[in-house]
Amino acid sequence: MDEKERANEILCILKANFTLPEWTVSGGAREPFRTLIRTVLSQATNDRNRDRAFKNLSEKYPITPEALAEADIKEIERAIRVGGLFRNKSRVIRELSRAVLERFNGSLNFVYSQPLPEAREKLMSIPGVGPKTADVILLFCTDKSVVPVDTHVNRVSKRLGFASVKAGYEKIRQTLESLYSSKDYLAVHLLLIALGRNHCRARNPLHNSCPVKTLCPTATLEAPELSSHRLHVGGCP
Question: Which residue in 57, 99, 122, 181 has its CB near the most CB atoms, within 10 A?
Fold first, then answer.
């Protein structure tokens, strides 16, 4: 099979082995500024602690640029402490809130109307917003055609042979976008993360239990016995 066929076979298997979050199929709108704050809180922690930090913060302040720009930094720290890196995240949250107020009149609604490159550039002009955070907002809130590359997507893409070990963010993103249909970008992002968390771990990846092990060059090299037991998987429905 060619590379696109292999990539989509992997996606088919991942869809069969992992469940996408309910919000991805319910069609509920996600507000850009709240998504931005959740993305900041998600850095270097798990979903549970991110959600606890967001809940604590939202109980203390409205999740708006106006409220967080004027919030006491120590109060933000106390609210989000459970999520780790709370001092740095508190500073970033207040700085980006002030920037959204000053530069965009307190609204990120431009992400809905502007073309992806322009919206992405504007988002990345906000302090603390890099390409991954910008792409998460664009994909999660507007369904724009982009695949965010977090640490799991980076690692999994390289181990699956989609990108070279030296590939940077933009190269990995562009490669994934070339391999998959835009309608699958959200699933690709979330399912590669799920694979990275559950099997393709940074240390001691679980090759034997990995659902895509027979399509993974790294697994074949590190566990040669897998190559003689190829799994037959039918096409996606």
Answer: 57
Classify burial at 163, counting beta carbons within 10 Å of its beta carbon; exposed 0-12, middle 13-18, buried 19 or more: buried
160: helix, strand or coil: coil
Average pLDDT along the chain: 92
Out of 142, 171, 193, a domain closes at: 142
Closest CA to 93 of 30, 34, 142, 148: 34
Alpha-carbon distances of 82 from 1, 40, 56, 67, rounded to whole Å: 46, 13, 9, 21
| 16 and 92 part of one domain | no
Per-residue exposure over 112-123, b if at least 16 CB sit within 10 Å of its own CB, e if not: eeeebeebbebb
Give the domain extent around 172: 3-24+147-228
pLDDT digits (tens, 9 = 90+) for 149-164: 999 999 999 999 999 9
Q: Are 147 and 135 in contact (CB under 8 A)?
A: yes
Burial of 169 (0-12, 13-18, 19+ CB in 10 A): middle
| pLDDT for 10 | 98
Question: Is there a single domain that holds both residue 13 and residue 35?
Answer: no
Query: Would the pTM of this model clear 0.85, i.e. be above it?
Result: yes
User: Looking at residue 230, what DSSP letter applies?
Assistant: P
